Structures are given as structure tokens and as C-alpha cells.
Amino acid sequence: MNKKVYIFVHPHEFLILLKTTVFTTPNCPNCKLLKDFLEKLGILYDEKNLLDLDVQTELIMMDIFTMSAPILKIGKRILTFKELFEGGKLNEKLIINVLEAEENG
Known about the structure:
The chain is α+β, with helices and mostly antiparallel strands. The chain has 4 helices and 8 strands. Mean pLDDT is 86; it is low at 1-7 and 12-16.
């Protein structure tokens, strides 16, 4: 069951309640870009360290086998670094689309 707990107020006035997690590594510049973007949108999130063995096990149990940070989990959807950063730039449109799609479920 997808536990919806956080509030996101979209610039278009949508109200989205989704569990959001950012998987990061220390001193990761792309992780900071992602977290700053989520904060700009008003999204609250849990942060988990990819160097933690329990976190690595959690990802393996979700069939995620990449260790490239960041990884973003929105509801049931997981976006890896490769999806989040196209051409070295954060794919903001994709993140907003996933937020909306997960809310509409």
C-alpha cells in the first residue's frame, strides 16, 4: 500500500500527497541540485544514504541495482540518476510529470 504523507503544492495549485525519498551520497553535487529543486517546489522528503548497507539492501529488494546518486522515489515510482539527469541537467519536467502521475494513480 502506498502511504501518502507529504504535501506538495504545485505551481498550478494541485495538492499532491506522496511519500517521497531521495537516496544520496555525501558531497554529491547532483543530489544537492535535486534536493534544492524539491525544496523549491515545497516537497518534503526523506533522505537516505546510499553508503548505508541497510539502504543498499532496501534498493535491491525494490530491484534497483544502481549506486549512482541521486535516486528519487515518488510514491511507487523510482527515478535513477540516468533518468533524473539528461545531458548533465536535472530533468525538472519529468519530476513534475511523475508527481502528477503518481497522485492521479
